[in-house]
Design a protein that fits this description.
GO molecular function: 5-oxoprolinase (ATP-hydrolyzing) activity
Domain Hydantoinase/oxoprolinase N-terminal: 17-194
Number of helices: 10
Protein name: 5-oxoprolinase
Domain Hydantoinase A/oxoprolinase: 215-410
Largest sheet: 6 strands, mixed
Strand order of the largest sheet: 3-2-1-4-11-12
Helix content: 25-40%
Strand content: 25-35%
Structural class: alpha/beta
Radius of gyration: 24 Å
Pfam families: Hydant_A_N, Hydantoinase_A
Length: 410
């Protein structure tokens, strides 16, 4: 998409941007102050050209150079859905996290609720825990709110100092009955922050509901993902200084950037997809739809029957979570799913080429993928696909490279 150069007569405020930052592509819709709508697509990762796809896309649509600052007051608001938290969870690339529990409860989250989703499996493979270490701190508040055992603050200080010395930067605090009587959790949170933990998630604030296990699981997720999310949000907010910035949450609502938390961000991108599909369908006279959102990395399916279906206790990527979110079924299959040949048969996925290097046709030495198969078959024609590839970011898909790689495979 070509954009006119930036000139002073475009300094009037009022630009609005809606952004979907997926695992492979970032798609942007912009409305100019005069009401004109424009769209733009770019790779979510292209480190040779830009640091962040959303900011780069906004600058391109405004006609600014990628290294130029955005003039204050030019943008009214930016609303974004992102898979940053989703990918961090799937790839287990969150913050190193310490879990703090009552004495005797170190294994509570490992034991969980003892659910056996595959009852007849002889070999049970438990999902990896998000927290790296767990520490038991003496002190107990009873179900009636009375203090049974005083909190051992000195032991807490020693444990926090030792964990920080080992490089742990996030802390999840989960205590018995804290949903109603949070005094011990509050004090432990103060001590953790004093010890230098940048992220402290206390269960009474994250998920103030009954039942220790789901409350604990959700608190650990929040501590594990929030620092990753916060760094990304702060990066975008800094580039858009003075602009109202909102993020889509897993339940389909928007949150101001400073209130966007890890536990509410896991389905940020997919939730925006079903909300957009439902509103578009209603405008066209279709009140009931099944949303099928196939991207470069995953495919999301959801039902809209006049109301959005939501779940409150779910399991995502082997992690239990209690937080309101859209009822969306996701499979790891998309245009970037890699094609494998084991000498006898072709297999698709579940690994993805993502945006970097991307499919073979993206001109970045990537592997053959589902997208490349469609290019080879003519179902995807380069002349009808955005020319956003190559070192300059303006070349079409490379069909010749795809045909060569398939010929070599044969």
């Amino acid at each position: 998409m070509e954009n006119p150069p930036f000139t002073s007569d475009r300094l009037s405020p009022g630009w609005q941007f809606w952004i979907d930052r997926g695992g492979t592509f970032t798609d942007i819709v912009a409305r100019a102050p005069d009401g004109r709508l424009t769209t733009h697509k770019l790779l979510s990762e292209n480190p040779a050209r830009y640091d962040d796809a959303a900011v780069a896309g906004i600058k391109t649509m405004l006609g600014l150079a990628l290294d130029a600052p955005i003039p204050p007051g030019l943008i009214d608001c930016v609303k974004m859905g992102t898979t940053v938290a989703t990918n961090a969870l799937l790839e287990r690339k969150g913050e190193r996290t310490l879990l703090v529990v009552d004495r005797g409860f170190a294994d509570a989250l490992r034991i969980g609720n003892q659910a056996r989703p595959r009852l007849f499996d002889l070999k049970i493979t438990l999902p990896s825990l998000l927290h790296e270490e767990v520490v038991e701190i003496a002190g107990r508040i009873g179900a009636d709110g009375g203090e049974i055992t005083p909190l051992d603050e000195e032991a807490a200080r020693r444990a926090f100092a030792a964990a920080r010395a080992r490089g742990l930067a996030a802390c999840a605090i989960v205590r018995m009955h804290a949903w109603k009587y949070p005094d011990h959790e509050r004090r432990l949170a103060e001590l953790a922050r004093a010890a230098g933990f940048a992220q402290v998630s206390a269960s009474h604030a994250v998920s103030p509901l009954l039942r220790l296990i789901p409350r604990g699981d959700t608190t650990v997720v929040d501590a594990y993902l929030s620092p990753i999310l916060r760094r990304y949000v702060d990066q975008v907010a800094e580039a858009l200084a003075g602009t109202r910035l909102y993020f889509m949450q897993s339940h389909g609502g928007l949150a101001e950037a400073r209130h966007f938390q890890g536990k509410d961000a896991i389905l940020s991108g997919p939730a925006g997809g079903i909300v957009g599909a439902a509103r578009t369908a209603e405008a066209a006279g279709f009140p009931r739809i099944i949303g099928f959102d196939m991207g470069g990395t995953s495919t999301d399916v959801a039902l809209y029957d006049g109301t959005f279906e939501r779940a409150f206790e779910t399991e995502i990527a082997g992690v239990r979570l209690r937080a309101p979110m859209m009822a969306i079924n996701t499979v790891a299959a998309g245009g970037g799913s890699i094609l494998h040949f084991d000498g006898a048969r072709l297999r698709v996925g579940p690994d993805s080429a993502g945006a970097n290097p991307g499919p073979a046709s993206y001109r970045n030495n990537g592997p053959l993928t589902v997208t490349d198969a469609n290019v080879c078959l003519g179902k995807i024609q380069p002349k009808h696909f955005p020319a956003i590839f190559g070192a300059s970011g303006d070349l079409p898909l490379d069909a010749a490279c795809v045909r060569t790689k398939f010929a070599d495979l044969a």
